[in-house]
Amino acid sequence: MSFLKSNRGAVNFLIAALIGIFIWFSPEPEGLNPRGWHLFAIFVATMAGIILKSFPMGAIAIFSLTLSIVTGTLTFSEAFDGFSCDVVWLVVLAFFVARGFISTGLGNRMAYKVMSLLGKNSLGLGYGLVATDLILAPTIPSVTARVGGVVYPIVKALTDVFTGKSHDPKMGAFLSLTAFQGSAITSAMFLTSMAGNPLIAELARSQGIDISWTSWALAAILPGLISLGLVPYVIYRLTPPTIRQTPHAKEMAEERLKSMGPMRRNEWIMLGTFALLITLWILGPRIGVKAPVAALIGLSILLVTGIMKWKDVLEEQGAWDTF
After folding, report:
1. Helix residue ranges per DSSP H, the chain
2. Does the pTM exceed 0.85?
3. Angstrom distance (rounded) from CA 287 to CA 264
4. How far is CA 265 from CA 76, 106, 201, in A?
5. pLDDT tens string for the chain (323 positions)?
6. Alpha carbons within 13 A on the beta-carbon side of 147
7. Are residues 74 and 97 in the same domain?
8. Under a CB-based contact definition with an 8 Å cutoff, are residues 214 and 285 in contact?
9. What is the domain range of residue 18?
10. Which of 79, 106, 131 is the last residue of a domain?
């Protein structure tokens, strides 16, 4: 038992490998050539390794690329063809820009501003959380960074307020469920709001369907907004908090904003970069600026102004794992 605990990564890697080996040596379905079946086996083993967390995602990707080339399943150029995909680069660059939101504190300022406006009652708090997530979603493709780094600390702070001062543990359940369900919707609303979205765009492209940032947003914005409008209310009805009026939340948000002081230079630059990116992503097809180029412009601004350093880019693990 102690061996399994101390070697969990190796054991999980072995399990993933055995899954791939089993599929590899199984008879391929009719109409599918052996090369395609072997690629499917490597793909399933890769997904299993990522799910089981046998090794870091980047390491598993290297293992799989190496195996696909060594076995002749893919040529070198085929294996690395995806690295030239502009959609993948778009999301990777968005990861870098997202770091600026967190490091400058602009994401937190936006969140507390929204909460100060909508936090008069518990239902308003729910809408404030999904509104914050929606504002940040276009430029933060990491759900962990967006919800875990910005939204969740606010949920925790609000929960502490109500479990401490007002003794309402149900408020935490309502806020947590609202933030969770809202993030599932915002992650699907923009091409750059989740790391997995480029895979969908690439699969569509392989079928001759080109999905740009703008076309994705236009298709998803209406159903997304309707869903976001329903989520807080539905959860409010299913898990109603005991306290309906929440002056403490509004006070807390205003206190946090006051303690943050006026917007600083870096926050203004980050806000301007954010506005520029959204504008270029929307108008890009008309003015001839592709979405990845717009993201490069945004990243360059952050590097030139010193908001981000090259070291920050190198340390953005989520981006490199996606790449």
Report:
1. 2-6, 8-25, 34-52, 57-70, 76-79, 86-104, 106-118, 122-136, 143, 152-161, 169-189, 197-206, 213-238, 247-260, 265-287, 291-304, 310-314, 317-322
2. no
3. 32
4. 46, 11, 36
5. 444 445 677 788 888 888 888 888 888 887 778 888 888 888 888 888 888 877 777 788 888 888 888 888 888 877 777 666 666 677 777 777 777 777 787 777 877 787 777 767 888 888 888 888 888 888 777 776 677 766 777 777 766 666 555 455 677 788 888 888 888 899 888 888 887 787 788 778 777 888 888 888 889 999 999 999 999 999 988 888 776 776 677 777 788 888 888 888 888 988 888 888 878 877 776 777 777 788 788 888 888 888 878 887 777 666 666 65
6. 21
7. no
8. yes
9. 2-79
10. 79
End-to-end CA distance of the chain: 36
Sign of the CA dihedral running 96, 110, 145, 157:
positive
Nearest alpha-carbon partner for 91 in 138, 145, 137, 141: 141
Contact 136, 101 (CB under 8 A): yes
| Chain CA centroid to CA 200, Å | 14
Residues 66 and 124 in one domain: no
3 state SS of 209: coil
CA-based nearest residue to 249, from 112, 138, 139, 140: 112
